[in-house]
Amino acid sequence: MKRFIAAACTAAFFISAGCSAVLPTEGVKNAGYSESTTAAEESGGYVPMNYPRQVGMWLPYVKFPEYMQGKSEEDFRKGAAEILEDAAADGVNTVYFHVHPSGDAYYTSSIYPKGEFLDGNYDPLAIIIEEAHNRGISVHAWINPLRLQTAEQMERVPDSFIVKKWVNAGMPYVKNVNGRWYLDPAYPETVEFLGDTVREITDNYNVDGVHIDDYFYPTTSADFDSEAFVQSGASDLAAWRTENVSRFVKKLYDTVKEKDDRLLFGISPQGNIRADYETQYADVKKWGSESGFCDYIVPQIYYGFENETMPFLPTLEQWTELVRGSDVSLIIGLAAYKLGREDKWAGSSAELEWINDPDIINKQIAAAAASEADGYALYY
User: Out of 124, 166, 226, 346, which could bridge 307 as a Cys pair, Cβ 3.0 to 4.6 Å?
Assistant: First the structure.
């Protein structure tokens, strides 16, 4: 599972900062980064290991069948070690490990049922943390806050699962959209539940941060939360939903910081800023410019240079401007998975760019390094 990262471009990110987590110094954004390991030795506690310039990599649940399902603990550890060894050799210093993708847990949880791809009696998160830290790689626990099981999956989880109790009791905190259940962020009960989710992870594991991606509101339909909207007395559905999302995002951030202010909280929204607002009610401008919502933001700029509606360089500049002057670090999310594939949404003139230009990711890494961004992350 060899990774594809240009060594020269990786080096460009580290020339000024070095590869050590024992930073940052004056002028580096984000006070959440670890300054030294001495404090850990003196207190006997864990000091989060983070870097002033991230070279990140997502480890998504969709790949779990390859190296988790049907595997023993020894097999999983060996596979994880190989992935992380390749990542470290390619300059990756941060991994976002998918611990809570769909109302489930790829860690030891008293809240959620075990993930369906985990059919062995071991703790994937604990192993990833150990293997990653042994290689100097930071681990951020990646969660999807609102997305839950499909209706079919919900029938199979234990009746003691609190969300299943809500479903069976017809509580308004969960809604079914196209056969999948989602938490409704309009309710204080769901916001507190999300705080408990993060707290369980940060209390029990030496993670270096918590990371969420772009699963916010699952639909724009007014039917999703019409009852709560009427009860709220609000008049603007979009503005009300946007505030609901920011409320739970802040709850997650605050819960992370309650554990240790040096832990990082990051958000990875879709790269199209307009669509963030119009389809998911994600207030990325607030999160990227105001304190108290995130430490870093990783827009998924999964577009080629020739994309007809969202070309890479202008989109990169939009996000650079969005965080300029703030304490929020900008990490550029790149679509390594598109290499060699047709991009049917890019427009007729650009749909073959990822096939015709095998060097496109290297060029995007170089563009990110030349910008004001604080790193990049790759999705394979």
Answer: 346
Q: How many residues does the chain have?
A: 380
How many C-beta atoms lie closer than 10 Å to residue 69's C-beta?
14
Q: Is 39 helix (H, G, I), strand (E, B) or coil?
A: helix
Q: Decide if 329 contacts 376 (C-beta within 8 A).
A: no
Nearest to 217 by CA among 262, 257, 177, 273: 177
Structure tokens at 253: 């951030």
pLDDT digits (tens, 9 = 90+) for 205-244: 999 999 999 999 999 999 999 999 999 999 999 999 999 9
**pLDDT greater at residue 377 or residue 19:** 377
- Tell how far CA 153 is from the center of its chain: 23
One-letter amino acid of 234: A
* Eight-state DSSP code of residue 112: S
Cβ contact 363:307 at 8 Å? no
Tokens of 236: 């603007």
Cβ-count burial 183-200 (b if 16+ within 10 Å, e if not): bbbbbeebbebbbebbbb
